[in-house]
Amino acid sequence: MAPAREGTSRASAAFALRDAAFRGKVESALQAARRVLAGGGAPLRYAGDVPHAYADKFCVAAACCGAAVASELAALRAVGLGEEALQQALGWQRAGRAVTLRLDGATRCALKEQRTRVEESPKVTETVTEERSGGFGFGSRTKERTVSVKHEVKEWTWAIAAEWKLQLFTGAAPEDSSGACVLLAGRASEPAEAVTRSEVPPRPKEVAWAAVELDLTWLLRQVEKDLSVRFEIDRAAGDCYTPARNAQVAAAVEHFEAVTKFTKGLTARMVECCALDPAQQRHATGWLPPATSASGIYVAVPAALALAEGGAADAAASEEASPAASGDGHAVVRVVLPASDAGDASETLLMSEPQMATLLTESLRSLDAIYTQLDRKAAESPNPAGPCSAAEVWLQQAAGTFLRAVATSALCAVADVEDMIRRQVVAAVGRELTEKDFSEYMSFHCRNLFGAAYRPRPFCHAIRRPGHAPEGELSICTGGDALPIETMVATRLHDTEGALVPPMHIKLSAAARLAFTGDRYVHGLVRHAFSSSSALQLHLRARARQFSSFVLVAGTITAADELTPKAALLVRDKDELDIPLMLETIPTQKEFRDAIESLSPEQQDFCKALRSMQLASTLFGIAIIQVKPQMERLLNLPPDALTKEIKLTRDLLSLFCNYQMPSDLLSFGGDAEAGVKEKIAVVAEQVAAMNEMIAEEKKAEAEEAVLQRRFETGGGGGGGLFGARADDLVEGFCEKLADSSQSFGSARVRRMKGMPKATAVFGAAPPAPQMRARGAPLAMAPPMPHAAQQQQVMPSAMPQAHDFADQVEEAPAPGAEVTSDAEPPQQQPAPAAQAGGAGGTVDVHSDVTTLPSRLDAACAGSEARAGALRATVIKPADAWSKTSQPKLLGAKKTTSLRIGSDEEKGARAEAMDLLDALSRSGELLVECAELHVVLAATHCFDSTLIDTVVAENINPIAKVERSCVSIASVVHGGIDPAAMLPQAAAERLGFIESSA
């Protein structure tokens, strides 16, 4: 199965730029075919321009491969493969032995002679001046003379020759005694001379060529006993996908790729051989005609991509025109073409066998013409018996250029048949398809596929109580268009079936776990990924409305009753939270088994343990806890009591989040039958008292800070210890503290009760300030105990800042008990989940941890060729963003939160502190909450969308459709798929028998 895909994919990649050039070759070949076949039947046209059936494409692909096989045999016959040698090679192949074509040889360089010769330089005429002296005072005179220089030159003459053999053999090598060998062509050339003026030879004395080999076993399998060629595609085979993607064409592609490699090596050897005689090589450039199409040799393979329009009369006419031999008497190889099963032969006529024979005859005729011209001109050359002779040029032309053109045309023809399908698909749709188009269609299709109760719904939920306006919105959206994803949803509402669902827990700290019930949702997400797909961007988004708030906790379901948080944030007052989600697929059961098959038992156990952890991580949980309803329960207020108490709700949030105020100090503790207004008034007065007490504490801290600063600066003049502006400094510092969020009741809070005032530093300490009850009613919670008195006398030495702070005692939080090693409150045991028998349905809400194993089993049934359905892990990314509006009419600002940063830790601590307060450290059950469990799977295809449809002959809609049904069955507890689908869809998918 794999070779069929890999072989043709290599061909497509190697000839990705072939379209324009190859279509030109096809048109040229068809024009020549029309001239050759004039009057011999209906004119041939390119198959893509002729109406035809899908089955005709298989015939066209087979015709191209058959024509290539016949052309390759013709090329081998041109270089010496006679009928006797062919029969012998066929006998080897039918006996189950591999047949190989091999070219090997060597070049030799030997010293022919050494000689010394006298070399005279060209004569030079020069003028010579002669000086003369005498009694009569005659001066000098000039005369001309001719001068030449002679010198001895040593020359070495070298004899350079080549020897090569082209042979067929069976066995390990031609000289192997267990095999046999047939010589097709070979030659030992006469030496060519090379003269040097150095004793160093121009070439090594002997160089053996690296042998170039081609396996002809596949080629010989296509030859029948009568020496005709038959190439057929087995359409009934399981690995036959398209005309270009099947075992037979894949083997042909592999062979023709080997042919192109062989011809490149053969051409390089022949060029090297001809280069031994440069003068003859220059002369040989005129032996061949100018290259127009494949060096003047007609290649019939592109013309096999043709169909004819006509009827039976044209077919009869084509049968009459059937030349049987080429010009030199060689019999033309007959190609047995497959018959079309398209049905209506009057509309489309495939190329007939006589037409194919005519085209092959034209190819042989062009070969013969080239050889005749080559042989004539080579005989007129200066050194016809040297290393560059007609034999080398012909081998390069017939077994090199022509054979390479045949193989390349065959590869391009096969790829063009596939491209023909691709172009037709694009034409049918109207444009190039993208994966976004496929996603949009699948969303549309799944809405119509399932019954009304099981249809996928957008993951966009309003956070609300029944009968109330929404507090906010929760959604999971795609990154590009921000549209919510669609999931299969199994819902259990708390109002009707809450008693059957055990509570879930969130670990707040080492000593506390929050228990919550509420509505439960199990979402099944099926996404798809092609080879060109980029990583799918999903975003978890939460948005709160004005004067509304809720806590979002996202993480992994690690146990049947446990949600391990990865993110926890308080969302309030028009906050918009955006958490990117990362998706990671894990291998299917089959892929995992195949991977660990050859590992040791210890290694397998290690991998299995990690896989179980990966499967457990596929449960992504999102908990939403509404603040107001739980705050009402916490403070002993009736439902809806805080709905319109906006300021009171904000003050309570501030006390719980910023100061970790115990709820016992704020809750209503009076008569349970009291009216709503009375209860709210009591809580409001207690909140006001807490705020006033906090303001006093802030003022005391301001006074201490100013005092400390005065101590450090050595004091100031005028009017007491602080000077005239002491009160102004204190008031200003108090205002600054009032704007900040100071921690109250947390790990080291300095209680300022009983701290000496600035006016009495050196005297007796005044009484500690009391927290004013302001006439609280009897129903008020017990008053907070007073702090211990501080030391009344300031030490003589001025203390440092840290010493001064250490004198202040730490008081326990009001109403809190000091305990050690506190244990989390024990929850009531959850009712047992009711499950059906083997293969039956289960209550997924009782124990969602059963879903990963069911998901893994559902993924195991996916077909390997159609892509694998893989379970997918969802987890929050490291970087988030939060948009908030601090003031009602102020501008929005966006902040980034990164896991582990101070901002993220602070936001997480705020949410956890609030949950701790709302649940009394896990003692109080949270009922107004909802839990969303997301189970994801990804259908992974091996190719791009268009290649999946065209090259793999796979309808991805049908595959993803089945994946959606499988995941929907898992989400709904193993329900029968037929129960979720309309009858027509169930019959089409084979879940029930057709009523017809």
Low-confidence segments, ≥5 residues, pLDDT <50? Answer: 1-17, 311-331, 717-724, 740-840
Main beta sheet: strand number and arrangement? 16 strands, mixed
- Count all strands and give the number: 29
- Classification by helices and strands: alpha+beta
The whole-angstrom Rg is: 47 Å
Q: Could you tell me how far the N terminus lies from the C terminus, measured between alpha carbons in angstroms?
A: 35 Å
Helix content: 25-40%
Number of distinct helices = 25
The tally of domains stands at 3
Keywords: Coiled coil
What do you see in this structure?
Residues 786-795 have a biased composition (Low complexity). Keywords: Coiled coil. Residues 683-710 form a coiled coil. Residues 775-846 are annotated as: Disordered. This protein is an alpha+beta fold and 996 residues long. It has three domains: 2-101 and 211-424, no CATH class; 437-632 and 834-988, no CATH class; 661-806, no CATH class. It has a 16-stranded mixed sheet that branches. Strands 2, 5, 6, 7, 8 and 9 form a six-stranded antiparallel sheet that branches. Strands 1-11-13 form a three-stranded antiparallel sheet, with helices on both faces. Helix 9 runs antiparallel to helix 10 (390-429). It is elongated. The two termini are 35 Å apart. Mean pLDDT is 80; it is low at 1-17, 311-331, 717-724 and 740-840.
Q: Secondary-structure map with pairings?
A:
Layout: H1 2-14, H2 19-36, E1 44-46, H3 54-78, H4 83-94, E2 99-120, E3 124-130, E4 141-147, E5 150-170, E6 180-188, E7 192-196, E8 206-208, E9 212-215, H5 217-221, E10 229-230, H6 247-274, H7 278-284, E11 306-308, H8 312-320, E12 335-336, E13 349-350, H9 353-379, H10 390-429, H11 435-449, E14 457-458, E15 460-463, E16 472-478, E17 486-492, H12 494-497, E18 504-509, E19 512-516, E20 519-529, E21 538-544, E22 549-559, E23 562-572, E24 576-585, H13 589-596, H14 601-616, E25 619-626, H15 627-634, H16 646-658, H17 676-713, H18 726-739, H19 801-806, H20 851-860, E26 868-876, E27 879-884, E28 893-898, H21 902-918, E29 929-940, H22 945-950, H23 956-971, H24 977-980, H25 983-988
